[in-house]
Each structure stands twice: as structure tokens, then as C-alpha cells.
Amino acid sequence: MSERMKTNLLRILLVALVLALWEFLAFRGLADPFYISRPSSILIDFKNLFVSGEVWPHVYITMQATIIGLALGCAGGVVTAFLMARFRMVEKILDPLIMAVYGIPKLALGPLFILWFGLGINSKIFLAFIWVFFIMYFNAYGGFKNVEPRLVNAAKLMGANRLQIIVKIILPSSLPWLFTGLRAGLGVALLGAIVGEYIGSTAGLGHLVQYAGNMFNTTRVFSTILIMSLIMMLMNEGVKRAEKWILRWKPSEL
Are residues 168 and 207 in contact, defined by beta-carbon separation less than 8 angstroms? Predict the structure, then answer.
């Protein structure tokens, strides 16, 4: 049995053990299902959400805010990091301002975004954007500043111009850092969209969780959380595959 198969098997066994223990405690009355529900009830409600089609509009709204916020945050973070890494004066001007804004609790900005942009999707996009921006900025900045100077000097000696150095040296060398930021940004983009929906919205997975919580429907809360987890797993797997394909030139670590 390969190491990967063994790891997957152990992971499945661990999850199955936790679910079985959870089901047993709820079934025997050792834990109140009103507060923790039951895995069997959650799976039934999960199935009903998709079969009835009730969940699809909420998934669409959340994914729309997540993907747009992720794209804008990644673009803004990468461009800002590149300008600061490339131009010393830009770094001196922007660095204290970025750190000052970064120190503000993003959750505290949620009500302001609702006030500025309303209860529609724009406030969720902006909340996702602001979280992704800083994650991507810090990773991209680290990548741009850690480019091997010998590679740049060698390219200059070979007659490469500035654009060629950026495209052939700086960006490829920074790709592992950028993918690290992207994978971290996936989680905060989804979190930002859901938090925005939770604070004020009429649709979306965050709204679905809030409504279920207000109705004391613990099963619906858990089934919605399960949907969020699956979305995050699928997005992360997609980025991992893209990273593996794009960085296929990079030697594998032992």
C-alpha cells in the first residue's frame, strides 16, 4: 500500500470514528441532539437542501462574492507588492499606511461596508477583497523581495530588458509565494463573504446559517457548515492541481 493510500485511509477512519461516536452519544441521549444534532440527521438535511434546490441560490450568491473578492484582492495585493518591492520610494510611502489599515479588525468594518454599499453583494465582495488583499500582499512581497539576485544579474549580462527580467525571472521565482497566498486567500475570501452575509443579507450561506440559528435549527446550521467545508475543499484542491501543473518545472522536495 502506498503512503498516499495509507494516509487517505487513516483520514477516512478518523472521520468515521468521530461521526460514529457523535451518532452514538446523540442516539443514547448522552448528548442532547437539540444542541449538537446527529450526523444522520445532518446528512438527510444536506441531501434535502440539494434535492429541493433550496440551497443553490445561496451557494451562487456566496460563490459570486467569494470569487470576485478573491480575484480583486489577489490582483490588488500582487500589484501593490510589486510596486513596493520595485520602487523604494513607494515602499516608504505606503508601508506604514498598509500596516495601519491591516491593524484594524476587519470584522469591525463589516457594519461600515453594509452602510456604504448596502445589503447587496457589493458589501460582501469588498469585505472578501480587504481580507484577501493583505494575505496576498504579504506573500507576494516576500516572493518579490526573495528573488535570487544572481539570476537577475545573469539575465542582465545576457542582454535581457526590464520586461524580460520581470516575466522570465521575477514572476516565475515568486510563483510558489503567490500560490501560497492564493491558497490562504481562498479561506479568507469565503470567510469574508459569509461574514458579510451574516452581518446583513437576504441570501447566501451566511444568511442561511443565521436564519437557521435564529430558528434553533441546529441540524440546518451543521448541514450548511458542511456545504461550506466542501466548497473550501474543492476550491483548495483546484488550486493545488493548478499549482502542481504550473510549477511542474520545479524539482519535487524529498
Answer: no
